[in-house]
Design a protein that fits this description.
45% helix; Rossmann fold; Four Helix Bundle (Hemerythrin (Met), subunit A); alpha/beta; 427 residues; five-stranded mixed beta sheet; single chain; six-stranded mixed beta sheet; Gyrase A, domain 2; 17% strand
């Protein structure tokens, strides 16, 4: 494989910049620029061009194959963050035969190929890089440090044991098997199935934490929805007017609510549309509101909400500037009741977030659903295992393939390009 290099820190002027070099030629190339280097360690060296011109003085870190992030020999140049210095060193590295600039995510892809990370850890790392809130960071760290991979390995071990027990009945088909294997197989498969179902139950919330919850502000025209959105956003995100029907489309504001990523939606006022454009806006708003995690209904005191109120929704009386209704009232104009709204939304969403698992992506959920279907088929027919042990063992192999797909052992080649394209060049 080619030796690859890339700037691992952000482009532009900075105090320090890091250039990473990975591959079999790493130490040879680095020594051509810096002189003798240890196979593994850190030293201060002058960096010179191949013509002998001094470029910089830098801290050089070296890692042996098997001890680095990628699993290959790696050299990192911790240089001064001058744009000129960075460009000169990158140009020098590109001049060596067998050395090229890394593609997006290529360092991490090599870590996957060399067994330093499994695919779930790669996905967790991508989420950690993209994390905007504390809760997203914590969830990403759980996955990146092997939370789902450890579970998948435990499931795999149990399924292999169950398959081996069933296959033993095939190997001894002409003899009497001394022990009935079905009770142990049933326990193993039932335990794996229960764990998978628990992960599936928490996968929806985990995905929401990764992508963000949605809170929709709904109500009739001129109820103060846009004013409330602006108050929550701390800026004029929406046009406000005393004329009804100002909001025609769904407006979105991204927020950090108690460490949770939340998108607040301002929807068109629900009423009999005055024209085709307003009708489209109302329809879109209603669809987005129904799909949201929570709806904040703004309705006049004594009136009924325009949409159905479900568990977790909040019903508030708008334009209560003096706070006389307590938590029932709110005013985007003065801010009365807004702190209470934020606190209550945070409580509802935080309670839901406690049920999150470590299966954070749709493909994890689908793989577990596939595996469970095969496990259930085996359990349903386990009492007749003596007649069809080969068929049941084959069902378990299908379940194993689904589990192996979670961590990237098989069947995920078509996903890798999409996953690694989301990484920056130097990762």
């Amino acid at each position: 494989m080619d030796t690859i290099f890339a700037l691992a820190t952000a482009k532009g002027r900075a105090g320090i910049a890091v250039i990473r070099l990975s591959g079999s030629l790493s130490l040879i190339v680095a020594e051509a620029l810096c002189g003798d280097l240890p196979a593994s360690g850190r030293v201060l060296r002058k960096i010179r061009s191949r013509n002998g011109d001094l470029i910089d003085e830098a801290l050089i870190l070296t890692f042996c194959a098997g001890e680095s992030y990628t699993g290959e020999a790696v050299v990192e140049f911790q240089i001064h963050g001058s744009v000129a210095v960075i460009n000169l060193i990158l140009s020098e590295l590109a001049s060596f035969d067998g050395v090229r600039e890394a593609e997006a995510g290529e360092f991490t892809r090599r870590a996957l190929e060399n067994g330093r990370l499994d695919l779930t850890q790669v996905e967790g790392l991508a989420d950690l890089i993209d994390a905007e809130t504390i809760v997203q960071q914590r969830q990403a760290v759980r996955v990146m440090t092997g939370g789902l991979g450890v579970k998948a390995e435990r499931w795999r071990t149990a399924l292999i044991r169950a398959a081996a027990l069933l296959e033993a009945t095939i190997d001894f088909a002409d003899e009497e098997v001394p022990v009935d294997v079905t009770p142990e197989v049933r326990v193993l498969l039932s335990s794996v199935g229960e764990e998978m179902r628990a992960e599936i139950a928490g996968s929806g919330i985990a995905e929401r934490i990764r992508t963000g919850f949605e809170v929709a502000i709904v109500g009739p025209p001129n109820a103060g929805k846009s004013t409330l959105l602006n108050r929550l956003a701390g800026r004029d995100a929406a046009i406000t007017s005393h004329h009804a029907g100002t909001t025609r489309d769904v407006l979105e504001v991204r927020m950090d609510l108690g460490g949770l990523p939340v998108t607040v939606l301002d929807t068109a006022g629900i009423r009999e549309a005055q024209d085709d454009v307003e009708e489209i806006g109302i329809r879109r708003g209603v669809d987005r509101a129904r799909a949201a995690d929570i709806r904040v209904h703004l309705v006049a005191d004594g009136s009924q909400p325009e949409l159905e109120v479900v568990e977790g929704d909040l019903v508030l009386v708008p334009k209560v500037d003096d706070g006389r209704l307590g938590e029932r009232g709110i005013s985007g104009e003065t801010g009365a009741g807004v702190d209470s709204l934020v606190r209550r939304l945070g409580q509802v969403l935080s309670q839901r977030a406690t049920g999150a698992g470590v299966a954070i992506r749709e493909r994890h959920r689908l793989a577990m659903i596939t595996a469970i279907a095969h496990l259930d088929d085996v359990l349903d027919r386990l009492d007749s295992a003596g007649e069809f042990p080969d068929l049941l063992a084959e069902e378990l192999r299908f379940a194993l393939r689904a589990v192996d797909g979670i961590v990237g052992r098989i069947g995920v080649e078509d996903l890798l390009g999409e996953i690694f394209s989301s990484f920056c060049i130097g990762k």
